[in-house]
Design brief:
single chain; alpha/beta; Rossmann fold; seven-stranded parallel beta sheet; 14 helices; 37% helix; disordered N terminus; binds adenosine monophosphate
Amino acid sequence: MQYNRHSGGYRQNRNPNRFRSFGRKRIDSRLYIKRADEFTKIEDIETKNSFTDFGLNAELTKNIKLKGYVKPTQIQDQVIPQIIKGRDILGIADTGTGKTAAFALPLIEKVLKNPNERILIMAPTRELAMQIKQEFRSFTWGLKVYITLAIGGSYLREQIMEIRRGPHVIVGTPGRIKDLGKRRVLDFSKIDTLVLDEVDRMLDMGFIGDIKSIVDQTPKSRQTLFFSATVDSKVERLIDTFLNNPVKISIKSPNPSSHVEQNIVRVGRNMRVEKLKELVSEADFKKVLIFGSTQITVERLATTLIQTGFRAEGLHGGKRQNVRQKIVKSFKENQINILVATDVAARGLDISDITHVINFDEPNNYQDYIHRIGRTGRGDSKGYALTFVE
Ligand code: AMP
């Protein structure tokens, strides 16, 4: 795709409408335009350690190799030795940095050394919790390390049965975890290690009360691993109360979406659907994630695209959990190549080969924008993000 093709590229636009108002917040549309940096492959990043330097269990090291991870990412390089030492961690890192494996690998090692180890992981969304579980599973082939989910929207009874079997690791969303505590299925006083992933998003989603109540019930002697992409005053307060002399590791590149070429598409409201169809018909739009602001927009857009003959689906919080899971799977496995989604539904999606993100509706704030476009350009690949503006 040519950089200038859709909009005239970097030309500064004097259009007074470029500030669109969404309630209190405004995003200057110039922020949607940015060239991708020359991108660095994971293999090219300078790291001190190789996976064999961490002294991990031989089977586990074999599984890392089988998964195709050649070298640790920066966060893995720095965090893994500290977690193994038993230190608390404050990791400031975006998604896409490899932070899941950064905590999964040393925690699997902990369980292998001490099968009585009990780990609780909290994440903002069901999708992210499922991805964390999958990442753990991919490293525990042939090892006696068990992980189970505690997420809302899925069968409660099944989860209760699985938790009663005493898995080493429980990963879930704060609401369901708290509920399972109340039902006395989960005993937080037995937790040795607590992981809080994407804390900033958990706070955005209103989980603060649930998180505090859960953490309060865990032993003070626990090891705590705390990850957040951003740190504001609310997050800072939690850092102070939850962490004990943490090792602080910040892997924030100055430009968090450096692999993503960003541009705007100037199009009037009533021409948007036509423009969208035109774009997704282009050969290089191989796997496209489209953001709509509401469930209705998402539903309508998906239906229109399907009726036009595209392989598309809509993903939003109004759909049942098992339906959402199926849709994500079919996108992952390329049965469909267009996913239309709301912000909440798309959080934590780890699909590595999305070629384009299209903001059919503008995001509410710049942070959401960064989260959205971070769904493309994952790992080593370059991505494109287009934002429709009037
Ligand atoms: P995360 O930040 O944990 O969501 O990871 C982002 C992506 O990077 C995922 O698709 C991981 O599978 C991948 N990844 C993580 N660690 C490595 C590594 N050491 N080498 C190659 N890919 C990795």
